[in-house]
Amino acid sequence: MNKNKYWFPALKYGYGWGLPCSWQGWALTLIYLSLLTSGAFFISEQSHLIYYVIFSIFITALFISICYLKGEKPSLNWGVNHAHNNGANTDANK
Question: What's the rounded Cα separation, in Å, for the pair 83 and 80?
Fold first, then answer.
């Protein structure tokens, strides 16, 4: 996939994705956050807490799935070109 078509870039350090790099990624993130927030208000009674937990797990799994499909391939990164030079002393590692 062309890098310009990714919605979420891979993290420079660590595993996963960073902030969205396209309007589609930002829209998805805002929808996800608004669903979490609205779920907290609509499922507010203490006795229905389990429903909110289930709801949160479901939409978080959906969000992560879309990030996986529309983002760069996640891998454990530690800086620029670290995995490609096997610890060689280059300007990229300094």
Answer: 8
